Structure formats: structure tokens, C-alpha cells
Amino acid sequence: MTLPSPSTHYKPDQLDIHLSEEDIQTRIREMADEINKAFANSEKLIIIAVLKGSFMFVADLIRHIKVPSQIEFVRLASYGDGQTSSGNVKPVDLSLPSLSGEDVLIVEDIIDTGLTLHFFMDYLTSLHHTRSLKLAVLLDKKEARQKEVQVDFAGFTVGNQFLVGYGLDFAGYYRNLPFIGVVKN
Ligand code: XMP
Ligand code: MG
Fold this sequence. Notes:
By secondary structure, this protein is of the alpha/beta class. It has helices at 21-38, 55-62, 115-127, and strands spanning 15-19, 45-51, 69-77, 90-93, 103-111, 132-140, 153-157, 163-164, 180-183.
């Protein structure tokens, strides 16, 4: 696959739309309803988004969250510029407030091999005694799983293909697309 050039990377003939903007927004509302129900008895929720990929998803999701929430961000890297998980999770920024006794929701764009979230959940539970800890992912590439991770809220199950858009990138491109697509070869 060749890299998209900045002047052409929006052209629809380069991408097949896999999930439309409407598909995504409809499902996010449903996920928010599920999350609101699950945390209905919480006084406060700490939402931790895993950057970079989850920035769009978390921004849209939290607009529908009715539990009083604080939003935190961590940054982990694993994919590099390729299209397969490196298996090497690089913590770029893990700074967080104390999560002791808190209800916590991790928000991630996609779970693939599970290595990234397995690492992060392990890290969190070894350092913080949360009151509860749940995980929301927009996309679940179930077939690719190498490490078991409990996903509490999943948007869509997707096949083992490389997806871009709506926060997901290929070599840094496509994150700004409002839909999720597959790059045509
Ligand atoms: P793992 O394999 O650790 O992967 O579960 C999690 C991270 O890998 C990235 N990822 C993707 N990025 N298209 C992308 O643009 C994809 O199809 C894809 N699959 C995984 C993503 O950053 C995620 O946080
Ligand atoms: Mg990525």
C-alpha cells in the first residue's frame, strides 16, 4: 500500500466505507445508554481515554454520558507505521490522578491483539484500587486476540482487516474522517 498524499487522502476512491458516520453515531448513543445504566448509582465517573486513536470516539461518547464525569488521557503506542501490532506496547504518557475508590471507565478506539489494553489494565490494577473498572471499545477485532481482556461495552465487532478513520490512522493519516473505512489496495 502506498502512503496517501495530503492532497489526495480524502478521495473516496481510495477507501471503502465500512461504518458510516450515521452507523457510528447511532451506536455511540446506544453505548452511552448502556454506560449510563451501568454507572447509574455512581456519584462520579473517571473516564480515561487512550490516545491517540480514541480522541474522536471519547469526544462523541461523553456528550451522551449523564453521570458526572472527569476526563483523563493516557497515551500508549504499539502500532507504529505498520498495519500489524508490534506486540510492543510503549507507554508514552501514563500520568493520572489517584483512582483509589473511584469508578473508572477506560475508553479505547479498537482492541486488536489485546496486548495494549492487557498491559494498561494490569498497570492500572497494580497501582490503583478502583471501586470499579470497566472498558468501552468502539471496535472489537475479536479474531485477532492474543491476550484475554474483558470488554464491557463494545460498539462493533470487526473482521481482521486494517481500518482507518474516526481517530484510526494509517501512518498518521485519515484520523479526521467522520467514518471508518478500509484502504483500497
Ligand atoms: P492491540 O493489538 O494492542 O492494538 O489490541 C491496539 C492498538 O492498535 C491500533 N490498531 C489499529 N489502528 N487500524 C488502526 O489505525 C486498525 O485496524 C488497528 N488495529 C489496532 C490502535 O491504535 C489500538 O489502540
Ligand atoms: Mg494507531
